[in-house]
Structure formats: structure tokens, C-alpha cells
Task: structure prediction
Amino acid sequence: MIKKVFVLSLAGVIALLTACASQYPLLVQQSTVKAKELRNYCKKQTLSSKTISRADSLYTLALQYNQAGKEEEGYYTMELATIYYKLALTQKELADSKNAIKNLEQTLVKVRDKLDTYKQVLSEIESTNQ
Amino acid sequence: MIQKQYLLYTCFSLVALCSNGIVYAQESPWEPGSEVASTKLDAEENATYKTLDDLSGALENACKACVKSVSPTKLDLYLEALAKIAVSRPMVEKKPESDEARSAFAACSLVTEAALLQMKARFNEAKIDELNNEIKKTQNELNKVHETISFRERSKASRLKADLDAEKEKARKLREEADKKFQELQSSLIQVSNDARGTIISMSDILFEVNKANLTADLKTSLAKIAGILLVFKSSNIIVEGHTDNQGSAEYNQKLSEKRAENVMNFLIDQGVDPSRLTSVGYGFTKPIADNDTKEGRQKNRRVDLIVQEKKLFDE
Result:
């Protein structure tokens, strides 16, 4: 049993190392795909902020690096663009959640007020019946 | 260079994911959704950081602040930030003044900022759930109170309807009894009939002194009986109408009819009938019920009518 686990773990590590050994162009490609997906998603969400502008300019710069064969610079720039897109999405998410909380708090106040009124009406009805 | 970093990054992500469980399993001093936790997250979000230790410390503190209300699986940026800091650490510590180190630190700061914002957003999601639950709970309570009010109102309405029906039935019986007694007064000088206005008791002018408004003894006897009935049949109003034939001037007949109606009304008041139930009016010869060209017709037109109208309990 222990042997089996050991062999499987070893195989896993070897597979990981093998996978990484010749991934240099793949890394650039992956980071580009990831950044592009995030960029499209942000556009669908119609996000516009300084963060998005920064991300877009980094994305364009990264593509230029890649086209010029500067893959290392291209990779890091694209990674940075990805972080900026994520940051923009998170900023949007946070703003949405703050708005939702504000609306829900207002709703809660209204429902509680209504409840108080109803309780008062009920208490008046009960006192009238007695 | 890239390959080495990628390998380190991947491995560290795995390690961070595993060790994260330990972090989350620890007791947190902040309760989920509490203001303390929220303030703590805000403080981390607004702070400025100069070293990688500052960044990882900020992530750690923020993680502790929201650990009870946010699932670790929802904090992917937290793991990414930890991994990035770990990967960048050797370079940043070895050559802190190099461009690469500065870029790496900037990237770490950026991803940490995103991670902190994500934690705050997730923390808010937990608060949103709490608020939704609270609204639902309050709404349920509200519905129950509303149902109780409706039930009480329906019960009250039923009781009122039952009371009203009983009152109506009582009034109907009284009315029947009164009508029966009015019918007993029927004679050649007193006619009793019913129309849309109510019960009409029509008294001949023979019961008055000739060309005068004084009541004869016979009329007083009959009116006393009528007053007795009206005292029992309280849910009625009475209009006393005086009428004449067309013999003589209109002014004379008008005054005579008014005076006779008024005298009848006053007699009824003397007998104990509530004045607020009584009204008197004289019409002179303007409302004949028979032909004034014949003696019999004129006889019929000279009269005093009592119109007994039932009071309405409610507008139906």
C-alpha cells in the first residue's frame, strides 16, 4: 500500500516536472489566453475605470512584446495585466455588494417599521376587544 | 527563469491551499458579520505596505477577520497573493534595489490589494445573506401579525353582523306589533294604510272642532292610544301632516292645516313621545286625495295624517 502511494506520488511529481520542462512558449500562450478571457469578460460587464485602462494598456504592451519575440517581458506584462483585470472585477464586485447591503438595510428598516405599525394596530384591536 | 518560477509558483499554490485549511481551522477572535471584522478588513484595505512581510501579514489579518463567514474556496486571490509573495521573496530579498525586485513587489502589492478587496466583497456577501435572512424572518413575523389582525377583524365583523341581524329582527317584530295595534284603531274616522313612506294613520276633520284647530275628546283618546304604541315602537319617526279642502282662501286653509298638525304633535309630546321623533307640517289644500267638487271628496280631503316611518339602523 505504502509502495503504491509512493509510486503514484513519484509519478505525479515526474509528470509535473515533465509538463513544466518544455512549457516556455506555452506559458506565454496561457497567460495571453487568460488575460484575453478576463479582458472580454470585463468588456461584457461594461467595466470602465482607471484600473481597466491600465490593464488594457498593459495587455496591448504585452502583445507587442510577444510579437517582437520578447517573451519574458511579454509574459510578465501579461501577468500584470491579468492582475489588473482581476483587481477591476473585484472592485466592481465590492461596489455591487456595498450597494446591495445598502438596499437591503433600507428594506429591513421598512419591513421593521411596517411590523411595528401592524403590532400597534393589533394591540389596539386587542385592547378594544377587552 | 520562467520555468523555474512557474514550477515554484505551482508548488507554492498547492502548499498554500493545504496550509490554508490550518489557518481557517484556527479560532478567530472576530465573529462573522460583526462590525469588528468589517473594520478590520477596512483597515487592511486602506493600509500601505513596504515589505513582503507587510503584505503577507495584511493577508493573514484580513483572513482571520473573515474566516468564520467566508468559505476558503471563495478566496482564490488570497491563495494567489500568498503564492506570488512566496515566489517573489527570494528575488526581492536578494536584490531589493533591482528593477526585477521592484516589479515583483509591485505585482505582489497589486494582487494583495485585489485579494483584500475580494475578502471584503466575500465578507459583504455573508452580510447580504444575513440581511436577507433577517428580512425574511421579519417578513414572516409581519405576515403572522397581519393574519392575526385579519382574523380579529373578521371575528369582529361577524359579531357586528350578528348583533345587527338581532337588532333588525327585534325591530321587525316591534314593527309588526305596532302595525297590528294601529290596525286595531281602524274606524270610520281613522283610516290606517301602508305605502312607501311607512304607516299612514289618517284622521278625519270631524275629530276637530269645526273650522278650528282644537282637538276633540274623541281625537285625544285615539291619539293617546297612538302615543302609547309610539312609546313602545321607538325606532320610528313621525311626520304630522295637516290637510284641508279647497273651501276658503289658501292662506286660511294653510294656517288651519298647520295649526291642526302642530296641535296633534304637541298632544303626542304631552303624552311622552320624544319631540326629536316628531315633525309637523301643513299643506293646506295643495295635496288632495279626493275630488274637491263633491261633498264626500271634500270630507276626505279634510284630514290630519300621521306618517310613521321606521328609522334605518344602517344604510344598506
Observations:
- Helices of chain B lie at 2-25, 35-46, 52-66, 76-94, 99-184, 217-232, 250-270, 295-301.
- The CA atoms of residues 130 and 239 of chain B lie 72 Å apart.
